[in-house]
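## Example record

The block below lists the input lines for one assembly entry, exactly as stored, with component labels intact.
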Amino acid sequence: MRLLCVITVAFILAFPARAQEWRGQLSAEYRSFSHAGLDSDQHRGTASLAAQPEFRTQWQDGRQLLTFTGFYRWDQHDRQRTHGDVRELLWLYAGRGFELRAGVGKIFWGVAETQNLVDVVNQVDLVEDPDRDEKLGQPMLGATLLTQSGNWEFYLLPYFRERTLPGEEGRLRTFPRVDTGQDALYESPRGERHVDAAARWTRTLGAWDLGLSYFRGTNREPRLLPGLDTVGQPVLVPYYGQLRQLGLETQATLDRWLLKLEAVRRSERDVSSRAAAAGFEYTLPGAFGGVSDLGLLAEYVYDSRGAAAFTPYQDDVMLGIRWSANDAQGTQLLATIILDRRTSERAYNLEASRRIRGNLSASLEARAFHASEPDELLYSVRRDDYAQLKLTYYF
Amino acid sequence: MTFPPWEGAACRRNIQDKRVNDRPTSAVPGAGAQCALAIALLAATALAPFSSPVRAAQADAARGLEIAREMKARDRGFGDSSATMKMRLIDASGGENLRELRVKTLEGKGDGDKLLAIFEAPADVRGTVFLSHTHADRADDQWLYLPALKRVKRIAPANKSSPFMGSEFSYEDLASAEVQKYTYAYRGDESHTGEARFLLERVPVDAESGYSRQLVWVDKERYVPLKIEYYDRRGEKLKTLTPQDYRQYLGRYWRAHEARMENHQSGKHTILLLNDIRFRQGLSEQDFVPASMARAR
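Predicted C-alpha cells for the full assembly:
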C-alpha cells in the first residue's frame, strides 16, 4: 500500500494541472458507549478524526479517467482503527460499448438493505462501521461489455486484502480478541497473492433488474480459529479459505414498491451453503401531509450455516423506516430493528443526517445489541451499545 | 430522489417540445398547455353527441392538444444538449441555499427524452448522479448513483411529487413532459404586455402526480410557456412558475435561462438559472445508461 501511495503521487504530479480536480472531506467523531467494556482494556468513549482526499482527472474528451481516493483515520484508543487505505487509484477507459479498468477500485453489487450477500469483490473495512458498508480498495483488472444481451463484467483480482478487525482496546469486538499481531492463515499456499476472478451479468427487463454473478477465490469473510498469543493467552486468528460463489440479485421497481432478492450458493473446501435476503421497500410520498417521503422496509435474511456463520443474520427479520424530509438541509433518518427468529438476538439501528451549512454536515448514529446466550454471536457486543456524533467538512 | 434539474423542462417540454433536453426553463413554460388541452378533449368527446357545449368542449380539447403538439414539434431535432444549472432556494425569511448541477439531455427517438444530472453542490452530495428515462406511455425509469458506495440504485417512480434537492421544483416539474402525460383544454387567448398568449389547461394522467391541474400561458409566436400555475390535489393553487430570458439556439430552439418557481402555500421560492447551454455535443445512448453513471462528468 505504501508503494501504491508513492506511485499515486508520482502519477498525479505527472498530469497537467488544468485537467485536475482535488476535493475531499475531513471528519471528527465521538463515540460514547452505554456500558464499560467486558475487558478492562476497553474504553467508555473514543474520539476519532478522518481525512479523505479525492483526485480526479480526465482526458480524451472524458474517455479516459484517473481517480484517486485516499483515506486515513486516527482513533484515540483503538490502534487497529487508526489506519489508512487507498480506496481508489483507478484508470478507466470507456470505448464504444466497453469499459476497461486497472488499478485499485471499488465495485458494488446487490440490492438488499440488511446485507449484500452477492457483493464479494471488496473486503469490508469493519473497524470503520459495524454495518459493513465501508470497503477497502481492491486491486483489479476489469472489463465491462455493454451489449444487447445485457452488461457483462469480468474482473481479475491479483491481491487480497485482510478484513480490518477491532484491536485490543477497541469496542465491538470478539472475546477472546483477534490477535492482530499474528499473520492470518490461508487455505491457498499463495496466501494473499492468490489471483481471484469474478464475473457478473446484469440486464434490465422492464421493471425488473436481474443480475447473476460468480466469484472464485479467497473468501472475504474470515473464519476465526482459536489460538494462543505470544504469552500463551487464548486469542482468535483469522483464516481465509477458498470460495466459489454463485449469486443472484433482482429488484422489481413497481411504482411505490421495490421488491428485492439476493441469493447465493457457496462452496468452500468441505462445505456448501446457501444464503438469501428478500424483502421490500414501500414509499409513501408526501407523508404526514407535507413534502417528506416515508419508506417502510421489511426483509428476511437466511443463512444455511446457522450458528456456524460469521454473520448474526441466519434466520432474521428486519423491519425499518426511512424518512426523507426533502428540506433544504437534506435531513434524513433511517431506523431499523433486526430480530432473530430462533435466538434472543436483537439489533437496533438509527442513522440520521443533516446539512448544517453549505460545506458542513452532521450525522448521528446509534446502535444497540441484545443477546442473552453465550453461543450467540451478538453476545460479545452486548455491552457495546453506542451513540456517535460526527461532523464532516467537505472541501 | 431523482433530480432532473434543468428539466423544469418536463413541464415545459411537453408544451414546447424543445425543452426536452435543454433546459428547464423552456421546458417549464409549455407543458401546462398540453395537459389542459387533453382534458378538454376528453370531456368534449364524451359529451359531444348531446349538446353544443359538448361540441365546444371537444373543440377546446382538440385545440389544446394541437397547441401541445406544436410545442413539442417545434423542439424536435435538437439531438442532445448539456448545460449547467444553479438553483437558489429561498425560504420565507429570505435565507438562501444554493444548488449546482450539470445537466445533459438526449432527445428520445420514438420515446421520451433521457436526462442525466450530475450534482456539484452542496458539497456533501457532490458526485451524485441522477438518470431518468422518460416514457410517454408509462412511469419513467430512474436511477441514482451514490459515489461513496459506488452504488447505482434504481428508485421508485412514485415520488415524482417530492421536492427535487429540497427546492420548490418537484421531480415531476423537472421531468421531460411528453404530450401523452396530460389531457388538455384550450381556454382562450390573452394579451399581456404586448405578448399574445394561448391559455391552456392540462391535467396529469398519472394518479401519482402531485397536481390536479395546471394552467399554462403559451407564447403564440414561439410556442414556449411564459407562465405555469400548479394546483394541488385539493384544487388549491400551489405554485407559479415564471420562465424568463428565452434565447434561441441553432436558429430554432428556445430555452429559458431563468425560471422562478414560487410556492404560494409555504412562502418559499426557487430561482433556477441555466448557463452554458450547448447543443449537439455528440452524446449517445451509451452516455445515458446506468452502467455509465459512475464516470459521468
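Helices of chain B lie at 9-16, 24-47, 52-75, 171-174. Chain B has one domain: 6-295.
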